[in-house]
Amino acid sequence: MNPLFITLEGIEGSGKSTNIKVINNYLNDKNINYINTREPGGSEVGDQLRNILLNTEKKLSNQTELLLMLADRVNHIETLIQPNLEKGITVISDRFMDSSYAYQGGGREMGLDTITKIIDGLNIIQPNLTLLFDLPVEMALERARKRSKLDRFESEDYDFHQRIRETYLFLAEEDSERIKIIDASKDIEEVESQVRKILEQKL
Ligand code: TYD
Q: Is 140 exposed, middle or buried (0-12, 13-18, 19+ CB in 10 A)?
């Protein structure tokens, strides 16, 4: 079987991290080789960019934020994602390109076309499968706030997160072959069974 590039997307508190374990268990059962990674971060340079990007003390313009996310992504593709896929290893990334459309394009209101223009020529590869964990913003923020100190994005207001959710749903409508919506408002077992069903269809 060809290795897959699988990405997880969703607003803060949508339960992506919990479900990476579900995907891992599924792939272990099928004896499929995989690695887990994330954005921003995922590589050594990426971890430094992540610190800058999530730090609430440093003010960044929207354009700077987008370009740092893209710099992180290109480095991540070159140093980790592509080399592993070439070795036949499936790659699971917690966030990828759709996050830039949703957060910078939608959340920061830079627009989706602006982002498409900027990434033209960057060789951003397309995931084989994207799981979008969708749930109402109120519910997600309540979960995220219980977790820990809020980062640059988590401390934004309700409307910011609502725009992100809407952009994700728009992207899923535009590319329903790749992006599968999971109802993340349901309890853990129900969400897990949705994830397993989608993986079964894809593998
Ligand atoms: P993280 O702590 O990994 O959040 P989460 O657990 O919700 O994924 O922080 C990543 C943050 O970076 C998250 O708020 C989304 C944001 N982000 C963007 O704004 N644009 C991007 O392109 C990416 C990859 C992430």
A: buried
22-50, pLDDT tens digit by residue?
A: 999 999 999 999 999 999 998 889 999 99
Please tell me whether the overall predicted TM-score, pTM, comes out greater than 0.85 for this model: yes
Distance 152 CA to ligand 1 centre (A): 9
Closest ligand 1 atom, residue 97 Cα: 22
Angle at 52 between CA 159 and CA 20, to 5 degrees: 70
Whose Cα sits closest to atom 10 in ligand 1?
40
- Which residue bears the tokens 């109802």? 183
Say if residues 130 and 9 touch (Cβ distance below 8 Å).
yes
Residue with the smallest CA separation from ligand 1 atom 22 is: 100
Alpha helices in 77-136 (DSSP H): 82-86, 97-99, 112-119
- Contact criterion met (CB below 8 Å) for 141 and 158: yes
Choice from 103, 104, 115, 148 to test ligand 1 binding pocket (greatest atom count within 8 A of CB): 103
Give, as one character, the DSSP assignment of residue 14: S
Residue 12 CB–ligand 1 contact under 6 Å: yes
Alpha carbons 37 and 81: distance in angstroms, whole number: 9
